[in-house]
Amino acid sequence: MSELLECKRCDLRFEASKVANGKCPHCRRLLNFVNSTGTESYFLSSRAVETEPQKEMSFKDVVLAQNRTTHAIRSLAVFFFTTLCTSLIGYALLAASASAALTCSYGSECSTDEFLILAWIVIIAGFIFGLVTGVRELNKSRL
């Protein structure tokens, strides 16, 4: 049987096992609790909480965890940097296409479709390349 606690705010008794996140199950406030022996504590009674023993991390485990984090962050950076660079190049080509269209005189043969097609190819290819390199870098985080 679990130890009984009493909430000082709502004066109701409840089992210690029903306490979640240090909140009273009735009033849902972070309160001081008084256990059955009369000692006061913030979240739970003074009984020993049974938890699984934590495994001590070795230096190798810490380095592996750091490498996984580094590769995961690097994958995001590679994706964003590649996408940003190719988008800027693509939008520069779109701007060149627009300015070439504005400088054409009426009735002359001016075609800016090549710039438009090239710009969209650069933008889409850059996004796909950034996605592939980002996923490749993310796979390295699994080690």
Notable traits:
8% strand, four-stranded antiparallel sheet, elongated, 2 helices, alpha+beta, 143 residues, 4 strands
Model regions low in confidence, pLDDT < 50 over at least 5 residues: 42-51
Can you tell me the overall shape?
Answer: elongated
Calculate the mean pLDDT score and round it.
Answer: 76
| Euclidean distance between termini CA atoms | 46 Å
Order of helices and strands: EEEEHH
DSSP E strands, number: 4
Helix content: 40-55%
Going across the biggest sheet, name each strand in turn. 2-1-3-4
Please tally the helical runs, counting DSSP H or I stretches of 4 or more residues. Answer: 2
Structural class category? alpha+beta
Radius of gyration: 31 Å
Major sheet: size, sense and barrel closure? Answer: 4 strands, antiparallel
Strand residue percentage:
5-15%
Question: What's the arrangement of secondary structure elements?
Answer:
Blueprint: E1 4-7, E2 13-15, E3 33-35, E4 40-41, H1 59-103, H2 113-140
Antiparallel strand pairs: 1-2, 1-3, 3-4
Helix pairs in contact: 1-2
Summary, kept brief:
It contains two helices and four strands; from the N terminus they run ββββαα.
Structural account:
This protein is about 50% helix and about 10% strand. It is of the alpha+beta class. Strands 2-1-3-4 form a four-stranded antiparallel beta sheet, with no helix packed on it. Strand 1 (about 5) and strand 2 form a beta hairpin. Helix 1 packs antiparallel against helix 2 (about 115-140). The longest helix is centred in the middle third of the chain and has 45 residues, at about 60-105. The radius of gyration is 31 Å and the shape is elongated.
